[in-house]
Amino acid sequence: AIPRRLDGLVFLLPTVSVSMSWLCCCFEGSAVPRSTFKLSAIAPQVTLDANRVGEDAVVVKNGARLCGSGAALASAPLMQNKSYWECVVQTTGTWSLGVATRDLDVNCLPLGKDSQSWVLRQDGGLYHDNELVGRLAERIEEGDTVSCSYDHMALKFYINGQRVDGDITGIRGSVYPAFAVDDGAILDVIFKDFISTPPQGFDHIMLEQSLL
What angle do CA 13, 104, 166 make, to 5 degrees? Predict the structure, then answer.
């Protein structure tokens, strides 16, 4: 897979053929030509990391949309005491989101199968190391905003700004926000300028130099 930038869109060009139907959905709302490719540097902000994306996954919208088939990590680890980020389920399918270490296999789906990831899946299940460690009672629909807060003790979840029961604890090591899609799912990640107000004391993910 080759990292690319398309007039403001950063994505990975899959090494295998992909369905044009989801690819068009992936580009929907971008309003840019799709025929001219050029390489360029990514702006210094938290986005999906073009170097840590599954081979058949595609990242567009300046590193804010994940589609195709595979996982992706954010470009910055969760270093501060209290971090917050959001994700909009643009199109349903098979997806998962949460946190993972840098050693995550971004081509192994779904997330939560190994010891490197702690995630919420589309069915409301909370998974780590291939074990169900909890379940949300609320149903997550297309168009919902799923938010995460992390304070190095627990990963907590919110749906459309409302806190939901079900935390993941026991997370170890340096971790990054992690996302995965398959079966036509499309996720839009938001690392700043949030839809909902973060919980008290929580803030957007800060780059390491911002913590000095």
Answer: 110
Q: How far apart are CA 26 and CA 61, in angstroms?
A: 9
Whole-number Å distance between alpha carbons of 200 and 103: 31
Q: Return all residues near 65 (Cβ < 8 A) that are at least 6 apart.
A: 26, 59, 90, 186, 187, 188, 189
- Calculate the alpha carbon distances from 83 to 11, 12, 151, 201 in Å: 25, 27, 7, 9
- Residue spans of alpha helices (H) in 79-199: none
pLDDT in tens, 158-211: 999 999 999 999 999 999 999 999 999 999 999 999 999 999 999 999 997 655
Query: Is the Cα dihedral 111, 94, 52, 175 positive or negative?
Result: negative
Calpha distance 47→65 (Å, rounded): 9
Dihedral sign, Cα of residue 15, residue 45, residue 89, residue 94: positive
